[in-house]
Design brief:
By secondary structure, the chain is mostly helical. The chain is built from 3 helices and no strands.
Length: 95
């Protein structure tokens, strides 16, 4: 259930980047009106925070939907299936 919140946050971060893309404001202008300064600040902070937000929420989606995403990640990674855990008792060890 909580994985869907990650999907929603990932969607919000990506749509924010899509809306930001045409203007690409990454700095705050100097000597502008207060309204324009706040607008630039909103765009710049939104862009930089969305980078972190996309990384965090994408990993959250991978963790939340582990049964679905693990086979996909293994296929893309081309790594062999990990062997099952195996342990052997050591007779010389003290408990």
């Amino acid at each position: 259930m909580f994985g869907w919140f990650d999907v929603a946050m990932l969607g919000l971060a990506i749509t924010g980047l899509v809306l930001w893309w045409p203007r690409r404001i990454v700095t705050v202008g100097r000597g502008l009106s207060a309204k324009r300064t706040i607008f630039d600040l909103h765009n710049a902070l939104g862009f930089y925070s969305s980078i972190v937000l996309v990384a965090i929420t994408a990993s959250g989606v991978l963790i939340a939907f582990e049964r679905t995403t693990d086979p996909i990640v293994r296929t893309l990674n081309a790594a062999p299936e990990p062997p099952p855990p195996h342990s052997t008792p050591n007779r010389d060890a003290t408990p």
